[in-house]
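Structure tokens please, single chain.
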Amino acid sequence: MGLNILHEDDRLLVVDKPAGLTVEALAQELGYFPAHRLDKDTSGILLCAKDAQTLERLHSQFKERKVEKKYVCLVQGNIKQEGGTLHTLLGRSKADRRKQRAYPLQAAGIGKREAITEWKILKRFENYTLLEVTLKTGRKHQIRAHMASIGHPITGDKLYGFKNQQIPSDLKRQFLHASYLKIGNAEFSSELPEDLQKVLEKLPPKNDSDH
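Here you go.
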């Protein structure tokens, strides 16, 4: 498959997953067990266990929030703050069963789980903002649902994006990349892929006097 392997030992394989490939297809090809999820159109770092025992150990580390995961994403519009934390419940959207929706913490109920996303601004562009996002929990579609919930969906996200949103002509997928992962003493990082780099190169930066 021509995959970029970031690390390999007897128990673990760390892959730089390309966009357009499902975790299931990757697992089938490699014959290993993915320890967490990345959406099909999200690129970046994926941990795969080579045996069931390692998989169990990784799952418990994720559960106990001992894994640090960072993403880079480009969102729609200009965010005024320099950073922040989104702390909500996430559950399935009643309006669209394919989507997750952010609910207030007091709206507890079956199928809703706590989700914490921290973000900070990396760069401002004319109509977009580049963020580094740190996941404190690992819920399905967490970053995508959280950013949409504050009115700044991920650029190119067909499911969570708003109608008539501007998308750079070169962007063929959602602008979301798993760039950093730390587990125990091991740290892995992945550069922004070429397709996303090219998109950024063509975007006009935001004028400092605008904010």
